[in-house]
Design goal:
255 residues, mainly beta
Length: 255
């Protein structure tokens, strides 16, 4: 990796970035939460004038970790951006994306009382998957015109279910409080089928897949656990690696 650019995030404490085509948006967690957009050209970012959108969350709510926004994500077709607010609102905000990359002035607010919506993913049919830390569950939704309609929900039976990552046709929810990942398949109507739980190192946070392998970040000790994704979504441990300086980290991508 070679550092190419350092640029202001448009707010304080950036926690999530999403990219579609030549547009990128960053989610800033502090000060009530905000979004800021960029155009991408020749590997560099240029701020989009008028792209800043404030989420209007309570900046003084505590504890801070569960009361700041969680993730920003473009829909697969790039027409919408979703933002989870975790316990500070318990909702998923959906912004429309204009042709110039700017967002609608205000979002459609989808309330999820006590769900603590945290991380977002999408299946191949366009269903929205959300890891919900309140009930410790994975939920699927249909998205139409900015409105989310729940299709199914499945309890993980674990603690602090906060992240979800795709691996081909399978999805794995990370359970930070249990040191595990929970596997699922999603049916054509959004129904969820559980594949069981697999132990990881402590402090399980984000995960990412590439080439039939799943890499799970254990943020507590700064370890990445490696798994082969087998038939039926079964995970086989391949070992782990400790990443220098990664203790407390929350974010991983595999290419």
């Amino acid at each position: 990796l070679e550092l190419r650019q350092v640029i202001w995030s448009g707010g304080a404490f950036p926690v999530s970035v999403t990219v579609h085509g030549n547009h990128a948006y960053v989610l800033d967690a502090l000060g009530g939460g905000s979004l800021y957009g960029y155009r991408i050209a020749d590997g560099h970012l240029t701020p989009i004038p008028g792209s800043s959108r404030r989420l209007g969350l309570d900046p003084n709510a505590t504890p801070q970790f569960t009361n700041t926004p969680g993730q920003v994500a473009f829909t697969p077709d790039g027409s919408r951006i979703l933002v989870t607010t975790k316990a500070n609102g318990n909702d998923v905000d959906v912004f429309a994306v204009r042709h110039d990359g700017r967002l609608s002035r205000s979002p459609v607010v989808n309330s999820e009382p006590n769900a603590v919506p945290f991380a977002i993913s999408f299946d191949r049919a366009g269903h929205v998957l959300i890891a919900e830390a309140g009930p410790n569950a994975l939920a699927t939704f249909d998205l139409s015109g900015g409105v989310l309609t729940q299709l199914a929900i499945a309890d993980t039976g674990q603690m602090a279910t906060c992240w979800v990552a795709p691996a081909g046709r399978y999805f794995y929810a990370s359970n930070a409080g249990s040191g595990s990942v929970s596997g699922y398949t999603v049916g054509g109507a959004g129904q969820l089928t559980a594949l069981g739980n697999t132990k990881t190192d402590a402090g399980t946070v984000d995960a990412s897949a590439a080439g039939g392998f799943l890499y799970v970040q254990a943020g507590g000790p700064g370890i990445v656990d490696e798994f082969a994704v087998g038939a039926g979504g079964a995970l086989t441990s391949l070992g782990s690696v400790t990443v220098a300086g990664a203790a407390g980290g929350e974010g991983i991508i595999a290419l």
